[in-house]
Sequence to fold (416 residues):
Amino acid sequence: MLALSVALAIALFSAAASQEGRLWLAAITTAIALAIAAWVAITIVPALARRTSLRWLAYQVDYRLTREGTIYLAAVFILVLAAVNTGNNLLFLILGCLLAGILISGVLSRVVLTGIDLRFDLPEHIFAKQPVLAEIELRNEKQAWPSFSLLVAGGTKKKPGEILTRPIFFPYLPRLAAARQKVELRFPKRGVYRQDAFEIRTRFPFGFFEKAREVKSTIEITVYPHVEPTDEFYEVLPLLSGEMASFYRGRGHELHSLREYRPTDSVRFVDWKVTAKSGRMMVREFEREDERRVMLVLDPFVGPSLLTDAPERAAPFERAVSLAASIAWHFHEIDSVLQFRTERFSTPMAPASEIIYDTLRELAVVEPQLLSAGGRFLDDLGGDQEIFKIILTARAQRSIPSLLWSSSYFLFMDRL
Fold:
């Protein structure tokens, strides 16, 4: 700026010398002024350009006319007609101010939208139909300017987002600072949800136009099935407990220790010989064996009537998936040893706490398949008679392998 000021002063001196008829002096001073300006253009301007961030030039900003903007442009058009027809200088002056307002609005809105970084955080585990808290963070990376009146929307007008379905408003974002807001989300059904882009919008400063900038996103989340106990779960659980007790009845147990009798103990565990010798009532405690080793099976093969996108016809399969998730969560809460299987997926037999989220992830994405492609899926399960199985299936009772009936409890989808 100092060099250009000197060049301007010399140029003015050259003009004054030319008016006085001192042409040689005017020519020399003009050449000096031009040389200084050229030196600035060749040496200083490129260096300044290299130090300047030009990221804002790459931002594509979309403009949408608002209702207020439509009224404003209509008024400008009427004023143009009046100024042209009357030739009134005052109308031309007002018209220039109105057009300058549009130009200022575009420049300021672009400044507001540039230098903004967005971060969207979600919990690691999300269940369908249960509210979760997500956090949106906007960071203003501009060195000198704050941002005002920012609206963060999920997706664009043409392609709405699947995760963030309602916009979040940030009234003020200071320079080199961040602002955070929490938003409650609720996902109506299980599955994989994606957010391909966010859109940052603003109507600053006058509200005549809504400017929008797209921010690419790669967010993908898996929403687990609904696991809150339902009426079907409360009906099934007592029957399930009875079946398991019947399956394990009569099996031997290894003695772990002896202790004194408590009022809550069953009389059948009293060791009468030790009681007679010690003079105190003693009961036997046994080592924990495999009473809680359970295989949970979801048979995904259904008939043509359930293989549809219609919500009312696909409801039995969805209820079966939700019930399977609730049963798996129940065994997780009681610290059982569990294995989960579908036709394409299997977990190891392990404590439920170690495999529960692998199970829920599979249940989140499992889809029904045509029954004719089922092959020998259930037949292969009948070979293991030592593990109690809970099987959710859409097959008819007469098609169930006979070996499974003695070691399994069946839940038929059409009865849920």
